[in-house]
Design a protein that fits this description.
About 0% of the residues lie in helices and about 50% in strands. It is mainly β. The strands form four sheets. A four-stranded antiparallel sheet has the order 1-2-3-4, with no helix packed on it.
């Protein structure tokens, strides 16, 4: 953010929202914003050059209480996950239109919160499912499906707050998860579903 005062910055004019997420789009020199206004899930692109909305679309005809938008580095365009009716959904922008809505996993109830991340040429989603375990999904472009990549180390955690980070090793995904005792665990997941707990941060105080 620059040093302009709040009075100098133009307001976006968003209504009261149930959820909102934003990401800087370098190629467009704009902010991609996805929000739920109590009735719909909406996307808009705010140009930093013109200080105005330059594109917008309705993504879902119902509201959502959790949204995560990220920029796909392969395309320079946004992908977004949102949630309603106990299911997490995904759509992505190709520069001119949005893809049809995908259900990440229709076989189980998906709980909140969730985290979307692009890494290693694909997309990942973490969330908690109805049986109470952490679930990590990886999108398989060949099968056009989201596959669970769960290991004993992942299943052992409570899935309270899962964050995904691309690791430094080729194909590695790092997961930061908080269990029901508020201990925070850092896990490494490698190709072939080899996982290990790298660090555990014990705490008697909620994180």
């Amino acid at each position: 953010l620059d040093s302009e005062s709040a009075e100098q910055r133009p307001a976006l004019g968003l209504p009261a929202v149930d959820a909102v997420s934003a990401a800087y789009n370098l190629g467009a020199n704009a902010i991609d914003i996805v929000y739920a206004d109590g009735a719909k899930v909406q996307w808009l692109r705010w140009s930093l050059a013109s200080q105005s909305v330059i594109d917008n679309a309705e993504l879902a005809a119902t509201s959502s209480t959790c949204i995560d938008v990220e920029i796909n580095p392969a395309t320079g365009e946004p992908g977004v996950c949102y949630h309603f009716a106990d299911r997490t959904r995904y759509r992505e922008f190709d520069g001119s239109s949005w893809s049809v809505e995908e259900l990440v996993d229709n076989s189980v109830v998906n709980s909140l919160p969730f985290d979307l991340r692009f890494a290693h040429g694909t997309r990942y989603l973490s969330c908690t499912v109805d049986t109470g375990y952490s679930a990590l999904y990886e999108y398989d472009a060949g099968a056009s499906a989201w596959d669970q990549r769960n290991t004993p180390a992942i299943l052992a955690l409570g899935g309270q707050d899962v964050t995904i980070v691309q690791g430094s090793t080729p194909g590695e995904i790092l997961l930061l998860d908080r269990d029901a005792s508020d201990d925070v665990h850092l896990l490494s997941l490698l190709p072939g579903d080899n996982s290990s707990v790298l660090e555990t941060y014990e705490s008697s105080i909620p994180q």
